[in-house]
Amino acid sequence: MKPLFAQPLRNLQRNVLAGVITIGPLFVTWLVFSFLLGSLAKAGLPAVQFLAAVLPEKWIGQPWLQSTLAVVLTLLALYILGSLTSLVIGRQALNLFETLLDRLPFVAKVYTSVRQLLDSMMAKKDSSQRVVLIDFPLPGQKSIGFLTRTLFDSTTGIELAAVLVPNAINPTSAFLQVLPLERVVDTDLTMEQAMSMLMTGGAVSPETIRYSRPVIAPAEEANPHSA
Q: Is 178 helix (H, G, I), strand (E, B) or coil?
C-alpha cells in the first residue's frame, strides 16, 4: 500500500509547495497594503463619522464609503502637512513642536530615534549613508547594514561608523553597531535592493555583490616605470 500512496503524496506536496511559492508574495503584499490602508482608514474615520452625523444624506453612512473617504482624507491631510513643513512657517512650527517634545524625557528619546531612523532610510543616494557589510555576529560572517553616520573616537581619533543591522524577514528590529570605518565594506547595493534581500531572506537579490574590499596595488606595482 505504501508505493500506492507514495506518488500521490509526493505530487500533493510538490503542488502545494508550488502554490505557496506562487501565492506567497501576493499574500505578503496584500498584508502590507491592508495594514497601511487600515491605518489610514482608522486615522481619518473620526472625521468621516463627524461628517456623517452632520450631513443629512444617507449615502455617507455606508461603511465602505466611510472607509474610502477616511483614507482619502488622511492622504490629503498628510499632503497638506508635508506642503506646510516645506514652507518657512511650517518649518518654524515643526521646530517649535520638536522643542516642546524635548521637555518630555521619554517621548523625546523615542521621537528623536524614530526621526533619525526615518531620515537615514530616506537619505539621498549621494549622501554618506549607504548599504555596507560588516563582520556580524562573528568575524568572517558578513551582515547587511546601513551606515547611518560617521563619528570619531575621542581617545584615539579613529574614524568610526554607526551601522544599523536589521534582522532578516523582520527588519523592524535591528542592532546598532559602532566599529572602525576601516572594517566596513562598501557595497554596490541600493537601499531598495538591500531591503528586498532582508525581507525575502536573500531569495530576491542581485546576481553579484561587492563582498570584499578592493585590493589596492602598491605604488611601485601600479606604476612600474616610475623608477
A: strand
